[in-house]
């Protein structure tokens, strides 16, 4: 069965990827129950689409990294259920986008690939098996700056990279998330793009991203290994990362490939805490 | 040396920031000077030069957070590129080893 969405494409006339966003939106509405939200009209007359935008799961189609459609969704306080970026999809499919706004054969093919991807029900087997023995009692050291409170876990087993991503290690398994510094800097997180389960990731490579109206934060993996689980709850409710990025807002789990080596470029609590303090003083000062 | 000095802005994992070559490279054939990256980066890595042919330059490469590539994600034209991560990691480890030897 086809999924049905409220589709918000960027519909940009600035480059070809905008035309593809429109093409995909049209394919979705012609071949199922999905309905299109016109971004131009929505900006000035939101009542026209408010009902639709909340009744059906919202699919946002951004043409490029400027993310006009995502930003519009944030502006209108919409909950994004799924999101796709045409430029990224083009890269994944090795399709080079042309300069013309009119779609050539390859670009139409890309639109078709994306359409099919969006309408195929995927059974995500991402459920974290409860074998990971995460500590129930996490102790925090707190750094306060004005009304902001930044927590850092002090439990043994927690490590941090200087890109503000934490990892908790048990044997050859790891759980990963972002620190309070990241979630506070982004403010309200509205979307989480997970990396794929089974992917091999190197230390300091991107492993998914989280984003707010302000910015996109790439999760820079503190360790190398294979992704074994993604926290499904934050796909549904990314705000959990704002609530507590160390507990219910964790991001993913990995099987480690070379932790002894990776550890060399990681901090423990003792050495990360001063790094955090300095960052807070500089950017929230 | 106290912590604040050890962890000051000019180091990454204890290595002097100047010794780490990590910053965005602008492809001027692609850049349309939309300045999204300038607005995005809180570290003042870029500088706008309105009256010059290249209206955007990487003014402070060493302000760039090592391994951060977030500005490139704001670039609709994919005009920002970064050095190889693996080589950079190996380089940092090497310097750390050399420093440890000399101490």
Output the helix-strand order of chain B. Answer: HEEEHEEHEH
Q: In total, how many beta strands of chain B?
A: 6
- Specify the structural class of chain A: alpha+beta
User: How many domain modules of chain A?
Assistant: 2
> How many structurally independent domains of chain B?
1
Overall pLDDT of chain B: 86
Rg of Cα set of chain A = 20 Å
Textual characterization of the structure:
The complex is a heterodimer of chains A (285) and B (103). Chain A has helices at residues 16-30, 39-44, 47-55, 68-75, 86-92, 105-119, 180-186, 232-236, 239-243, 259-263, 269-283; strands spanning 6-9, 35-36, 58-62, 80-85, 140-145, 148-153, 158-160, 165-170, 173-178, 189-193, 200-201, 206-212, 216-220, 225-230, 252-256. Chain A has 285 residues and is of the alpha+beta class. Chain A has two domains: 6-119; 140-283, RNA polymerase II/Efflux pump adaptor protein, barrel-sandwich hybrid domain (OB fold (Dihydrolipoamide Acetyltransferase, E2P), Beta Barrel), CATH 2.40.50. In chain A, the strands form four sheets. In chain A, strands 7-8-9-15-14-11 form a six-stranded antiparallel sheet. A four-stranded parallel sheet of chain A has the order 2-1-3-4, sandwiched between helices. A three-stranded antiparallel sheet of chain A has the order 10-12-13. In chain A, strand 5 (140-145) and strand 6 form a beta hairpin. In chain A, helix 1 (16-30) crosses helix 6 (105-119). The model of chain A has no long low-confidence stretch (mean pLDDT 90). Chain B is of the alpha+beta class. Chain B has a single domain (3-102), classed as Alpha-Beta Plaits (2-Layer Sandwich). Chain B contains four helices and six strands; from the N terminus they run H-E-E-E-H-E-E-H-E-H. In chain B, a hairpin with a 7-residue loop joins strand 4 and strand 5. Chains A and B meet through strand 13 and helix 11 of A and helix 1, helix 3 and helix 4 of B.
